[in-house]
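for ur thesis appendix - Putative cyclase. copy paste whatever u need, i formatted it the way the template wanted (i think)
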Amino acid sequence: MTGTFDRTDPEGAIAAMAERCSNWGRWGADDVRGTLNFLDEAKRRDAAGLVRRGVAFSLSQPFDMHGPQKGWRRRTNPVHTMLDTGTDAAAGVQGFPHGIGGADDVISMPLQCSTQWDGLGHIFDHGIAWNGRPAGEVVTSQGDQVTGIETVADAIAGRGVLLDVGRAFGDEGELPDGFAITEEQLTATIRRQGETSRVGRGDIVLVRTGQLTRARREGWGDYAGGPAPGLSFTTAGWLHRSEITAIATDTWGFEVRPNEFDDAFQPLHQVAIPHIGLFIGEMWDLDALATSCSADGSYEFWLTAAPLRVTGAVGAPVNPIAVT
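the 3d part is after this line
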């Protein structure tokens, strides 16, 4: 299934794709890392050699109250509050000796309100989680007891590859909302960019659509949950065959929205996470990196993107750093 499917039958299409792309049992019955098994020590060592200029790019959006969230499923923007301030210190009310003072703060936020990874406990298929486990035995009120994001806190660092599909197929670098990126367009983008954008086992692939560029210029609008460019459901086979370790986009939901079926919600997630075991990143800021890659002619780099080590979390914030 690379290009066509019955728009009226998401159940059937998801089931067929899940069977075709399943990695269940590939790394044993107890596996908790999914496609991160493709990223081994040798690949990290090779990826470290990609640093040529030493130029670093943060791929994170700001974590503040000016983000895109509008409250869907209780997702809000981060709330940052000061606990101690310079005015407290100046007023002498902090209770410290010999004139020392300081500032402290606290943040409250959903773990997936801005730049983040989806963990393997984030999405289920008919009550089944990654590797065929019953979802109720994986994620409870205590959190993800099996594949919590802390299990990969040391793993997501290696060769990053940028596929700037926005520049390859968009209008002035931006794909329109609802644009479904196909396997053929991913492959064409790789050809256009050259050898440094080849994609293979263990790579962390970043797909720029340009939607964040547009939102930054025009305002958030429906960026969080509304129409968006993104990967077509039909790319599931490519995601599986390529043996990449993770993929991230500059959009809220990774896959094209509206979804390609008459009545569906995030069907590619339903295959990619519980069946392929793929880690998905969303709301990454790829613009500065893309400009640099275009100017330099190289689309590969060292990338470290460790999630915040929140025990039992099914997703977590991240400040990815690409070094060229």
